[in-house]
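User: Structure tokens for this complex, please. No commentary.
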Amino acid sequence: QVQLQQSGPGLVKPSQTLSLTCAISGDSVSSNSAAWNWIRQSPSRGLEWLGRTYYRSKWYNDYAVSVKSRITINPDTSKNQFSLQLNSVTPEDTAVYYCARDGVAVTWGWFDPWGQGTLVTVSS
Amino acid sequence: DIQMTQSPSTLSASVGDRVTITCRASQSISSWLAWYQQKPGKAPKLLIYKASSLESGVPSRFSGSGSGTEFTLTISSLQPDDFATYYCQQYNRERTFGQGTKVEIK
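Assistant:
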């Protein structure tokens, strides 16, 4: 059974960097079929996919256009986890952030499982 | 971007009712659609993938149908545990979600 456990601060100051980590159990961040995603949810934006990392002989990343200039998602194979960094945050980045697994192939594009969610508030 | 539009936004129903939620895509997504249930304070839970495939462990009162641009999620007989918000998600190109349909008690 795959489980995802999120960690990271719940409060970030404007203009600073939001950093979250998602620890994986029951699967590998280096899986040749899975992809590891970050998704956020806010009342104003709904559920918004932010990006993913995956391994297919080398590491790849895909990012949503809306955050592409500010986001980095990195795998950590030594700890079997992956991380999210979102730079230059504003109050509009306040949301519940989730990590989730899907697959790269279009035949496996649904998210399951999800992490427990982390409410991140951007405020001074 | 592929836009996903759900209707209605809110649905009032009683236990035992048959409930149908619609999701429309801005362009054809074949059958690359998933449905989720979300309760307050919890992560979304996968119900249906590939438009009509029921996730293991999900009650058979949930069903999905459709292809191309129009999809439906049906709950055949609403149970107390089903009052929640439901989301569709396309995975034909990138990943986008509908805005959600809240099923509330009538």
